Request: fold
Amino acid sequence: MSETKDIRIITRPTKEQIRQAQIDFAPRCTAAGRVNDKETQKMVQYILNFARKHSLFLLAYGTGCGAIEIPATLTSRYDAERLGIRGAATPRQADVLMITGYLSTKTLKRVIRVYEQMQDPKYVVAFGSCTINGGMYFDSYNTIKALDRYIPVDVYIAGCMPRPEAVLKGFAKLQELIQNGNAGNGECYRKNLDWYRANQQKVIKNWDFPDEYNW
Amino acid sequence: MIMKTTSERNKQTTLFIGPQHPGITGNMMVKLLVEGDTVVRAETHIGYLHRAFEKLIEQRNWLQSFTLLCRFCVPEPDPMELTYARAVEAIEGREVPPRAKYIRTIVAELARIQSFLLWYGGQAGSAGLYTLGQWTVGDRNYILDLFEDLTGARIYHMYIWPGGVRRDLPKGWADKTRRVLDYLEKRLDDYNRLLFDNAVFQKRAQGVGIIPKDKALEWGVTGPPLKGTGIGNDVRKDEPYCAYGELDFDIPVYEGGDVWARALVRRDEIKQSIRIIRQALDKMPGGSYYNRIPNPMKWRLPAGEAWVKTESVRGEIGFYVVSDGTEKPRRVHLRGAAYTHGISVLEKILPGQNIADVSFILNSLGACPPEMER
Amino acid sequence: MTTQDIIRALNETFELKAEVLHGNQIRVSMHKKQVAPVLLYLKNQWGFIHLDHVSCVDWIEENVFELVYIVYRPQDQLTVLVKTKIHREHPEMENMEGFWPHMRTYQREIREMFGIEFPGFEAPREFILEGWEEIPPMRRDFDTRGYVKRTYTTRPGREDAWSVREYITRRTGEKLPDFARKYSRD
Reply:
């Protein structure tokens, strides 16, 4: 099980990192009133990222057939909860939106809505080959082909279907990105909303939502 | 979930369960009109998983369709391959060697067991009992390991082909299967103690979601929901295919038609499946496992049609396959068990139930959205 | 009861020529106006109480749609495939939603996927698709690849999409034998 070993190395901070954090942290505690300078911000960010990467709440939304491997990943054999990954019921409490497979245009509309309801920091993990380039649905009239044209994506997990080990590896990658401060795409989405919205409206013909949710 | 008041006196409320809802099986939506916490009217909305498989299959040749077919139903892909392979064989008149028939039986029954184990997790989880899901879904991996040894994949196998199966049983696989079955049989008692001896489950399941016995056949109910109403129709027994005619097994039947009866049926079905696999392993004939087909790229089937049915965990599934004499199918149309269970039957039995029981009933009917909309 | 009894009964009552398809399956073709009476007759008179399936096949060369209703008698496992052909221009079929509760679902699907109208059928039009503006997608003349090209952006393929065998030999510096070259890409 070389997979598990890799994950352990990536997800836990190295001793060097911990020592660095302790050194960074110690003098600041005594220096009152200096919380807004660059060094402190960097340190706070480090601690925040450290905390975030160990508590990833997955939104319980099985958008496609990849949802069948999620229970296997979360339950006893693969036990993703030891990495801090567990389910969340509603978008507003979730950190990670998993696009488990192909998205039909009807689901894409709901996914966009769910994605916009989620609060920062939010991460998107795309699951399966069909989110990358359509996979085996390359000529289907009802599924989108490249997910990152419609919502920004942090991590792609290739395969049809990806094994739970691959899913864990993908999450390890996401944790690495979070620790480095490279993950989280709400900002990117807000900045480039026009481009994303244009792409979305090209595919979704019927752009009506229930009354409570109109743009 | 979004609430929207519809009447002036706020008596009746529209409530959407799904598509994003932890209690929903897969990706579908049930629109409810509720008064207090009682459902007045229910409406199933599907189409969130529509991948246009039946259109795509028209563009693939007979063998290429298998990669699409097994994705018709995610929790239990093997009966789809089996049914389609049998339909192709019926059109062409191709014989299947006896060894292949036994291997197919074992694969279909293993698929049933793993799907039932997944159902345990879903059914208990929708009643708020999360321990059982951790156990059964964890133990399901042992069966997926067997599939991996046999076919090379955990979920989608593409193992059953026209004319037989793709590979022979690997060395030592039969013993491994027996060991897994022995383990599962021991564990079943633990699962059942946790689920059926639980007061919460007993109180919630009994008398909920009743399908009337006299209407069941007319409503198109099949599989465990039908056996839960006291009618023991099962395609494996009625029109035996593969090796089922030569094996000894019983069809569990319970009266009542409620969630409790359906759960009891599924509990006994696992035991019967274990029994079938053991017999099939013992009786396994030798010889060829595959009746060679011609070059699949140039393989033409004679013009004709076939209607073939198979028993899956959710009920009977059938394929209506039409060939026009070319390399590609003219039409492949799936009759999913969930197609009736999840839409017309659900809409009929939900009125009068509690909101909290909706996902409970949905799980017990075995609604499987990818099978409904393909 | 056997298949022969049903074939005889259909012949005597409706003057239809039924035939055995496979085993205990019977296939019978008829005019579209006869479908409803035959289905009701089979259901009420002979106990074909279980509607198994309703399917539609597009025979674009003959300019017809073929509708297939499959009914099943659980007592002795008899199946009847009731088939009818309707014209492809302005296709219409009798509305039979009252016969079986799940007929409504089948009719909604066929109406959406093939554009066959059922006069008097009042279910919501949108069932699986949403905001669909093209011709019904399951018709043979709907070009799904052309639609995909027009609508969706696809990712270009990898430039290094070599033959795996070639790639391995190039990496190891091994010379490719002739029998292996037969299957390689160039």
